[in-house]
User: Fold these one by one.
Assistant:
Number 1:
Amino acid sequence: MRLLRCALGLAKAAWTAFNRPAAHLGIGFLTIGGFVAGVIWWGGFNTVLEATNKEAFCIGCHEMRDNPYADLQKTIHYSNRSGVRATCPDCHVPHKWTDKIARKMQASKEVWGKLFGTVDTPEKFEAKRKELAGHEWARLKANNSLECRNCHSAESMDITRQGARGAAAHQEFLFTGKATCIDCHKGIAHKLPDMTGVPVWTQTAPAH
Amino acid sequence: MKQILRTTIVRAALLSAALLVTGLTALTLVPESRAGSTTPAAAEAVSSRDVAATGRPAFTGAEGLTVQEAAPIPKDVTDDRRRQRNYPEQPPVIPHSVAGYQLDLNANKCLTCHSREFTGDSQAPMVSVTHFQDRDGQVLGAVSPRRYFCMQCHVPQTDAQPRVQNTFKDMDSVVRQGQGQGQAPGTPAAGGGNN
């Protein structure tokens, strides 16, 4: 009770201080100071946001380092002849600011997952793989494989340099808009989950 | 007050001048030191690669053993052309790249083109119906578990040259030879050496 009253008193004092016109500070100081503080705050916010958009941040948790990152290391998006590498945020975080903030808010669920150890063993991760992959497939399907197209564009694709089968498939499905990248190219940077019931993929091995 | 300000300005000027001098010295020094160090190193690198000339010893350190340069990694055959089989039971070889293909209990990349229901779109050869039989000869609706792991039998090809020439002759050429109308003895059959 005493504590509550104390807290209430503090809150009231804070509100009074906040609400009262400045008695000693000039309007110039307040506007310029406010502007400078705003710049510092905005810069700080975006710096921290960028810091959370680094591969090093993503694999700071052993869940990410030992599972999806270990998958990625075996694929062409990690190591290839031309030495270009896609890092986690290149595919998993939208580049446009508003979309990025929306994705970051969504990703706060991952903090929850970390705290409660949702995928803290390889077995738990494996059990959740299909659900987690499903989220990413749905996201990429909905935005027409935007993160793929940040690097790969249909316009700059020279199909004469592709294998015959790839060229035919791109002409038939990609250029006509019948399909988007993720429809066919699932599992290009991570191991696939159980693909039973996933379109394009079949699980033809019957139950034992 | 003015005095303090003046000394501060003088100090700042001195400091920036000192920084400028240090930076300039560093700039002029760097290329010189680089030029001095690289030339002999580069020459050394070239000569040490020439194994025949230097006779660089193998890791064992034993006398007379020299390092042999590795042959270039052979290229995959990706021309999508079916290869002639050397005998009727030979599993057909894979004439395309299978790099990164996932083939485990979760997913089978091969079947996304070669399974019955997708051959219309993919124009790939359908998995043979023999693969639908279990070991009792019972035909199942889809690929039998014992035939699920495609690359146990079907393998991609590379342009690697065999160390020992293959003298395999297929059945038909042996039969023709027996009838006295075959190829000259000792000639390897065309297509021999696949798989």
Number 2:
Amino acid sequence: MVSFDRFLGLCLAAVMPAAPGPALAAGPDFAREVRPILAARCFRCHGPDEAGREAGLRLDEAEAATALLGSGSRAIVPGDPGTSAVVARIEATDPDLVMPPPHTKVALSATEKRILRDWIAAGAGYRPHWAFVAPQRPPLPVARFGSDHPLDRFVHARLAAEGLVPAAAADPATLCRRVHLDLVGVPPTPADVEAFVAASAGPGAGEAYEALVDRLLASPRYGERWARRWLDLARYADTNGYEKDRERSIWPWRDWVIRALDADMPFDRFTVRQLAGDMLPDATADDVIATGFHRNTMINEEGGIDPLEFRWLALVDRVATTGVTWLGLSTGCAQCHTHKFDPLTHTDYYRLFALLDNADEPEWAIPAADDDARRADLRRRIEALWEALPQRWPAPPAESPAGEGAGVEGAFAAWNAAESAAAVAWHIVQPATLESTTPHLTLRADGSILAGGDVAKSDVYTLALPPSDRAVRAIRLEVLPDDSLPAGGPGLAWYEGPKGDFFLSEIEFAAGGARRAVASATASFSGKAAFSGAEGAVTAAVDGEMSSGWTTNGRQGEAHAAVFVLAEPVPPGTPLTVTLRFERHYACALGCFRLAVTDRADARARGHDAATEAILAIPVADRDEAARALLFRRFLAGAAEVAEPVAEIRRLEAEVRAGPTTLVLRERPAAWRRTTRRHHRGEYLQPREPVDPGVPPFLPPLPAGRPADRLALAEWLVAPGHPLVARVAVNRQWQAFFGRGIVATLDDFGLQGAPPSHPDLLDWLAVAFVEDLGWSLKRLHRLIVTSATYRQDSAVSAALAARDPDNVLLARGPRVRLEAEVIRDSLLAAAGLLSDKRFGPGVRPPQPDGVTEVAYGNPKWTASTGEDRHRRSIYTFHKRTAPFAFTTTFDGPTGEACLARRDVSTSPLQALTLLNDPMVMEIARALGALAAAAGPTDEARLDLLCKRLVSRPAAAEERELLLARLAEWRRRIASGAIDAAAIAGAGDAAAERAAWTLVARALCNLDETVVKR
Amino acid sequence: MTGDTRGALARRHVLGAIPLGLGRVALAGLLAGGFPTRAARAAPDGPGTTPLFPPRPPHFPGRARAVIQLFMAGAPSQLDLFDHKPLLASLEGKPLPPDVIGGQRYAFIRPDAAVLGPRFRFARHGQCGAELADVLPHLATVADRLAIVKSCRTDQFNHAPAQIFMNCGFAQPGRPSLGSWVTYALGSESADLPAFVVMSTGSGISGGAACWSSGFLPGAHTGTRFRNSGPPILDVAPPAGTDAAVAAETLALVSALDRRRLALDGDPAIATRIAAYEMAHRLQTSAPELMDLASESAETLALYGCDPAQPGFARACLVARRLVERGVRFVTIYHEGWDGHSDVAGNVRGNCAKTDRASAALITDLARRGLLDETLVVWGGEFGRTPMVEASAVLGRSQGRDHHPNAFTMWLAGGGIRGGVTHGETDDFGFHVVRDEVHVHDLQATILHCLGLDHERLTFRHQGRDFRLTDVHGRVVSGILA
């Protein structure tokens, strides 16, 4: 842990001169007034970026700014604007002298010039940027306006200083609705409101609210509501993005987030697990699933892309997302050059990059703990089927004499004799050296070679076999499945092409410095090449043509073998080099394989696995019972007579393997550490010198005495004394409730960011979040919603609209349009349609035709059926290139980049959606049916709708307007001018249902329905 | 901070919680002209005809006020349309000299693939003598109106990143598109239609919605996509069983109830929503009118080759003209299908059959209506195609061309553009630009320039940085300006 004092010392060393300047007279505030000017107008050329620096002058550090320049002058002479070159230059009228130079199109206003002059006159005092100094718990201001809630004390102190008073408390029904929308993302039921209003009138009013808050925090809908905001940051989507934008399975991570928030996992653990859960000692499956956070980056599967380039771009995204999500810093600038404003150098950026750069990115089959019974049962059934297989052998025809050659035993004996005669004894060889252009290769004890890590569109493996004591005439290449490979292997293809595929373009053999010709090539199976269906025959791997080759596509997850017979034997003692070339428009190298040799010229790929073949090569008399049993099964598995039950066995075996997968990070083995390099101008194709992993020096150091890796980064973020992480986290929560952060720029706490409106409140919250609340988001949310500030009436008086239009000072309650998901979920809930079903793959609620047609390949959107139409919006399938229209229309994210704060727009398209969208009409119909069935009066029916949609009965004048309209619509329905059945569906009371459907539709469109107030 | 950004922030401050863009616009309209002041309270006074985004002045007087972007997605073969390289015919079947190829990466082919000669005959057209392949007979008739840029270059060689790059100046999704920047800067002259319209006539767009995204600009600047079947705008058609009267009555009812809420709660954002509903109501009338091509003469329909019942490139071009006539600022038509990895000749022939007549007709029609001077038309794809052949047994491809980012051709016409110009030149292989290179950022700077916008001043503050369409690059191609 870095003590505050030591850390402050580091900050000061970095940002301040060693000795303080002259005593400061009262002048413009450096942080609030001066630095923003310097940052915006001067730092581009006179800031931290050495490469962009002009005249060797930097104005972001006191020491440099006051140093003697080459010209003999000093840019800043503290206390003496008259001799400060800066003042002379900014006030110059000569276009050749004035700063900033006219060609930059940046100009200083008269006020800005005055501030700089006054600041220099007052001593030119520099202060470290507030956000880079760890927060200290400020004292609580005195309680005012009747509240001693700590948050109110800060807000009220500011209000008092501004001569303002807080608004009265919101009425109980409004508050009940507000806190429901905020905490669980759906409005209260009419009964909820009634109960709360009644309780609020009684003596236990205060307790009633706290009880409500506690109930909501414990609701399973809490996690679903708050996970969505985290998903925005994580750029969650159910497709890969870019052109192909194919479906991916990462919903287990989304479910992990919901569960973690429901369980109130402290934010520090929440952080560490998502960034480095795989690296924790004794990592659980959940810990590994959590690393999906950074697997939400996009995957380009377009034909012909360079996979390494897009892996690198995903890393760029991860650095940016980490910066915004935890540090509240935009690191993007430093990808290309040293940051112009914040003290983040180009190299610092790539050091941060290096911390995240050492992971492989598998699609991980989740080991289902709760699934073991199912699998054990399947295995039992499979074994029973095997056991029973001989009995399924067709009985010999009744008239034929039973005897030798008939029945299963006879058939097996014949098979055994034939196969044994043809069997070849293979010698598995362990290559002396393994070379690879991209993937890392590991030789295992059984002689198999496992590949992992990165892949390229063209990869070459070169394997040097040790000299053999006998001649080599044929080489067997086994291609093997492995759980670590995509779809179980045997190939490494994981994007664009079929998962687990490989494509052996050429295999070459060389001995004694010469290429050895291949006389024949056979394979146990040859698949169809993906995309063209061309024959992927094994002979194509020895035809000298790179665009053709061998594949076992279609049989992923199975072992197969190819046998290459050389034209001439390689004499004993001669080392043999085997070169495997893989090349297609997607990466397609082998993931697991093994080599064996024999001196037999008649060797062929016979379709047996290596173990079977090895037994067959043993004289029959020498085989033990286990070997015989294995052969018998092997025989049965290939016999046409029992093909049907064998197919059933295969199906069950596939079921054993089936289960959800999710995208995770897996730290690479130490031997295969990636080298991270600085990239000139931030371009993938311009790598420069290697950099070591590390964090920027203006922040606390990484923990000493341990590797600087992803886990260190994660733990560093949540270590005590970090100046940014807790502030950034609490600020985001604050924004969720009030519509505006204490720092308005949620994603930028750097020098260009907005200064905090209530700095002490922010620091108090940040310290309390860690020290008092133990990083608990639920406790933080409870603290916020129990404040009087949160509970204020939100009405905007004319005076307040003029004085504080953004409600920065919080003299009233929050008033914000609901997020897309909350609008949809609220409407569904009001209509009684919202499903309680939780978790699982994304669902496709109905949406108008043509939303997805614009995406590549004109994909169809087939609406889900049953309750999946009405699931909570967090479960809506998110296609990046054509997102769900309702969500997009209401400013939902595309999932293509980290998003800290959504735009809140108001548009005619939103109006069209709420008026005409079939889903909203479905909701209105459900509401219309409820109203029509209710009673006894129209007033009561109307109140039912209003209570469900806006949590209150209709006011008198509203009732008058609505019932008048209802009466008119009823008349027109009765006259046939409006088609009731078309609106509400045929059936009982169609006319009444239609009339109320139209009323409900109008109510769905009220400002109040889509706004938290 | 530039003046532009400062202005935007100041306005945001004035209106408080109301989002940029529509919010302030709608309010301004409701206040019957005159920009609202801090003291102003919203006092809605009935339906207005305020544009969705009222026009804002450009940085300097621009020649164009609207843009029609004909995006030839998939990347047309410049070597078979515009950039005539006779040498390739004589080199056919042989590899290019390795020093020409350098380290260029390709999607499908190996760099040593053999040369494929031009597939069509070329001839000179118009007074300017522009050289065009004979698959462009209609474009040839307007050759003197075109500025043909043969020296375009991009950084990207895969479709999705390249399309996003061409639209957004950055190859990863997340930044605002050209159309969004333009409507953000200039607003709209239409009160009844979206400011930025996107149409697509093919098999789907590789770059997806990122190509017309508003990125970090206010969401209302996202391109509004017109569907090919049914009413063009999503949810613009009233629900079954309801009619225009119900729509009007519902609007009146919702407005009345919202006004009551506005009077009680005082939030100006409610006034914005009321205005948005009024605009939505107008869209329900204007959209069908826009798509009703019955008022177009048979001669005009024939000029475009447009069957009003058939969605397709010709109809999209005609609709684009109608949109521009009605004050829409930016229209993009995606025509997908130019990705000629195999049989590039057949690919070019087929796509020209679908687009040549209508592209030329659009120019002719705009010109005769006096709209061409103020409408910038931009034609082109996301990159070019290789001088080398693409052939692959395993993919069943032959006589195709792969993606080529180093050199390709686009043309511009209309507002701000000098017609009859051929700009830039490639080497004898059509591989590299050898004169007057026009990078994607230069094209973007030039398009903005034609609209009176300085690409260096059109900025938006996001995550602590002032972003531009052209990043830190771009220079206006003065050689093609009128």
Number 3:
Amino acid sequence: MLSFIARRLGLLIPTFFGVTLLTFALIRMIPGDPVEVMMGERRVDPAMHAEALHRLGLDKPLYTQYFDYIGNLAQGDLGESLRTRESVWHEFTTLFPATLELSLAALLFAGTLGLIAGVIAALKRGSLFDHGVMGISLAGYSMPIFWWGLLLIMFFSVWLGWTPVSGRIDLLYDIEPRTGFMLIDTLLSDEEGAFVSALRHLILPAVVLGTIPLAVIARMTRSAMLEVLREDYVRTARAKGLSPARVVFIHGLRNALIPVLTVFGLQIGALLAGAVLTETIFSWPGIGKWLIESIGARDYPVVQNGILLIACLVILVNFIVDILYGLANPRIRHQR
Amino acid sequence: MSLLNIKNLSVRFGDANAVPVVDGLDIEVNEGEVLAIVGESGSGKSVTMMALMGLIEAPGIVKADQLQFDGHDMLSLKGKQRRKIVGKDLSMVFQDPMTALNPSFTVGYQIEEVLQQHLGLKGKAARARALQLLERVEIPAAASRLDAYPHQLSGGMSQRVAIAMAIAAEPKLLIADEPTTALDVTIQAQIMELLLDLQREQNMALVLITHDLAVVAETAQRVCVMYAGQAVELGHVPMLFDSPKHPYTEALLKAIPEHSLGAKRLATLPGIVPGRFDRPHGCLLSPRCPYAQADCKAQRPDLVPHAHGAVRCFYPLNLNSEVA
């Protein structure tokens, strides 16, 4: 297990450099520079333009800029935003809990509903429910997130008026950010109705963000369950006189979870990508929206390091999933 | 009264018109008795016992005039009542030990599960009993095996664990479905010996499903020979071996390699077991039978009792050579 962890950590280094190089290059390939964007439509005096670029250090050759960037990274300096002059790390840590809250809510939604639907579909194979779940999940998987989000907003927020259109909480509440998680902060505050408001704001984005993972998990659970239920050890469990619930959930699901867990881990990467779109649609103040705005403003340090931080996060999550995988599957744990 | 009494059992897969996999089978097992069921693959041996255990799932249909075990009608028993018997008084060891154990749970857990389900044993008491069981099935270093996962065990070891699980609640009837087929030869003998030891020690009845006639000759008191879902001959050991009445039994015995010593080829019965599309009108063996007459192909014989058993044949062999 230790050598497994060491190997995974060793892989981090090239990944890390790859990400820095990619984001550094990609953001500079987009036409325009931060100064132009800041000046907007006004005509820029070339001398002023050059002077501003020089002040930002953007007139140096690209390789110098890259090595400066890496040098700063090595010292733990993620730089500061060209727009707000706030440190990137500070902005990231302020906004990240919002994204994390949304992602966890989406995962919870996708995980519970996906597992339940998948198991029932497998047990009632060929039934109307089975075909229904599989059809809907195929549709859900194929649905573009932004389109799906807009549809839901139109239906639930605009027509039915059940949920708010955007944001994390109603403007009339002033919640002190203690944990950064709105649901927890509203509970800690003594403002009445704030929690319900936060919850109502969270539901729709979580559903939109969780739709694709939900579809994937439901389908994967169903097929893994069907496979496992045919196994000899399930027959053995039934021959032991165990209750059907025990046979299905302890002997069946436990083994079916192994492939589902892998898919679950892969979905977390997809979830962060989806968060960019979902946050933009719902004006959710998280890192997805932050990155989109930074790309628009050509805020080089924010884009480079924001993406780097997200990449590190995805790597970390996959790392955790790998370890969980070992816990769920004794055959992997005992390999040397 | 016998422990197990099956009358006119039929199992079909699909609708009621489907060709039966088990066709009008009668089986009786007394307490403490060893019955062997023999026959080639596809003759319905395993399916019969799966039907008894309640392991036949849709689209399988199980019908019987009687399916009685230890005074319970296993056909009408449902859910919880049935599960109080299955795994406790009536348990089963399967063919392939490497897949019969759940890979995600330790050996100890899987044994303790039975103890908790049927005997209400929990925690330390269950663990202590599980250890005893592992020792009883002669697993070396039993204490350390309790926490082993099935993939860490060899095939023979896994089968011992499966046996420990099956005898955990001291069953009255143990069904062993080709328990040694998946194991190598040296281990086969050990596992058979273990099963017979346990059978004698606990005075439980044992139904042994097997291909191995040598094993049958050494272990069983009675034999049921099955062909294409029907019992073709019932008899006692060793009479059945000395003077087989049914041509199929005779052919099975002839196919034992030791009986063909010196011959260039093994004696075999040409052809294969009839499938769903070529099931004969008459005797099911008639297309392959060297003694078949015209009426064999026209009519199906019944299982007719004789002095030492029963045979399903119009022209049984060796009837006159009967000595005892």
Number 4:
Amino acid sequence: MRSALTRLALAAIVGLSAACSAAPAQNRPVRTDTFVAGLGSEPDSLSPVMGYAADGGSLLYDGLVSRNADLTLRPALATSIPEVKGTTVTFTLRTGVTFHDGTPLTSADVAYTYRSVLDDKNDSGIRGDYAAIDSVEAPDATTVVFHLKHPYAPILQRATLGIVPDGSLEGSGFEAKPVGTGPYRFVSRTPGDKIVLEANPAYWGGVPAIKKLVLAFSSDDNVRATRMAAGEFDAAELPPKAAARFENTDGLTVHRVPSADYRGVMYPMNAPVTGDLAVRKALSLALDRAAMVKTILAGAGRPAFGPIPPDTTWHNPAVEGSPTPDQAQAVRVLEEAGWAEGTDGVRARKGTPARFTLMYPAGDSLRKELALAVASDAKKIGIDVQPTGLDWDAIEPRMSKDALLMGMGTPFDPDYTNFETFHSRFAGQGFFNPGHYKSPEVDALLEKGREESDPATRKQAYDAAQQRIRDDEAWTYLAFLQHVYVVRGEWTGVAPSVEAHEHAAGGLFRNLAEWKPAA
Amino acid sequence: MIRALARMAAWRLLFAVPLLFAVTMGMFALAKASPFDPVRQYLGDRALTTSPEIAERIRANWGLDRPLIEQYLTWLGNLVRGDLGDSRSLHRPVAEVIGDRLGWTLLAVGCALVLMLAGSLVAGVAAAWRRGSWLDRVITGTAYANEAAPVFWTGLLVIWLFAVKLRWLPSGGLTDAASTTVEPGDVLRHMVLPVAVLAFSQSSWLVLFVRESLIGTLREDFVIGARARGLRERTVILRHALRSALLPFITLVGARVPELVTGAILVESVFSWPGVASASVQAALSADFPLLAALTLLATLAVVAGSLLADTAYVFADPRVRVLGVS
């Protein structure tokens, strides 16, 4: 209710106020003691075991490893990045690290954290991500050994999971007072409002310059923009259109951060129209991705042609296309495949009209606008795409028959989500490969990429898989989104890196502990 | 009379038991009929990257695969033992969640109730006293307009005026975003707008009622008599007329409790007030059944208690009224 009602009314109100007051954002002196970050979505749980910041970026916890801005791994609680040998990985722990409650970190805590994720009684939403782990052992206080069920190279990427003290999740006290080893420790939480953190004076990586940190939550984009303008926030994540008013404002910096968060059309492969490669290829050719990025995303994005974002090392540069449409070529592809022009402007082949439904989640205005844009571009080449807004619960049973505007993507490892999205083993399993895409070649490449530990061999496998998926036009990718942040004041240490679909990995704020006021 | 009252209270409470049964059973039936999948809401964004096998396991852990009646009896059994279960969306025991938030709701609603009663009495009396004047027209007109305006709309208008344009008061939350502790002064500043909006939005009925009732009473013989005896106008209005005009007012207040609950839900949501009412919106949106069930139970109890209190007050206010069960 809040989102629908308030968004509508506040959009009007904020627009009005911006128009009549045109008051520039107040330049309040930067506070060095307390930093307030305005965020859109509040984590349900602060426990890494339940999935909080499992991909790193949590300021409360440390994983065995963490990430540099270029997404390469660096040791955190481990002393070095180990090598994956077959089905065994051994981490050696840093010594002298203590939790916020003063207890020293040992390998028992690490083993406990991973075992808790894997324990199906804990209802952890991320259990599936760690399914490759067979057991975790702690032979001595500083050694942790992971035994895997099968060779699984991305295990190192999964080691960003925050570590909690042994036994801390028994009972219900953890959510009220979470304990980790991270640069910030928990002070208080007002659900629906904010979480207050303070610098950990005993942090092994050095005490952060920002001493008090408030994560303030406000799900409404316009409210967040207003509170940013009013000086309540020192930084905020905002949608591109709401951030536009802060461009060229003294004392404020707008950061546009690339992400792996794509939007694309998922095709049901067994349906008569979308099952035809020519239709999929022609549609991809006919789309004006440049216009979608410019108007629908307000410039905060880039055209997409595959599931792996261009700013990461795993991207295959050969998988590209033209951001502008080529209708003539699209029509040629359709004609050659026998889709002849019909009387009502819709092409047909052997009595089958080139018509399909494109579903989108009804509450998501971005996907709705993209679906409408796809339909309008498709119409120009004689394909009738019918956009239909539905609830997720209504979408799920229809995914094997109707196309869907989906959004996913993580930049960390090409195995993430892609294995389940394109491997035939997962065909029709919930939201994994909902379109029943089947390609033995892609299956083999995905398996190879998962099992090989040599980065060069993996890169080769994923390059080939990306090419194959593009050749099959398994999905039609539209755009990668950019996440937009507004930051007040001058800071050093701000290090944007390609972000995931969710803001869960902290976004721009993932390394806030390293930010320092510029002199 | 006290014994009679106690008997009435006992009767009411006895009656509340089947009512609560009906409400909770209806709630379970509705939850079962709801098209929303609680496991999907629980997983959130991760629903798309979670295998159906894990989702099924969570469903089984929650007992959602059991027959409806078994789920209901389990829940009821736990409730009787004082265990409200764990909130699925907040990952904490429901009792703890409600305990954290109930105080803030009682504070806001309590202040709003006092403000509403005082405000509508003053406005209603003023309008009746100066019937037909511009003051009366302004008060009556505002009351009608307010009755027609949805609460959230009033709330947003007030935010725009006082928080965005004038910047006198904060737009929401319990404390300033940057404050790391809860200071009374800070909370007080944040309370002004939500309390005022809640009180104002619920007041039109009462203002109009006080005005009508008082105008009617002013025509009665005893008022005319009082005036004829040369009593001061203030004494006539406040001591004689208002007193008798106010009797049904008490019932009306009791009957307004359900709307106060609805109003609180909207106001708490608009102003990000961390009370139980805004938690119920969150619980509903995330299909968090254990939390939603406990909050519905709480709201039902509030309504039952509200009408009981009103009836009790009525007995004290008007000696002519006989308590149920005493002829």
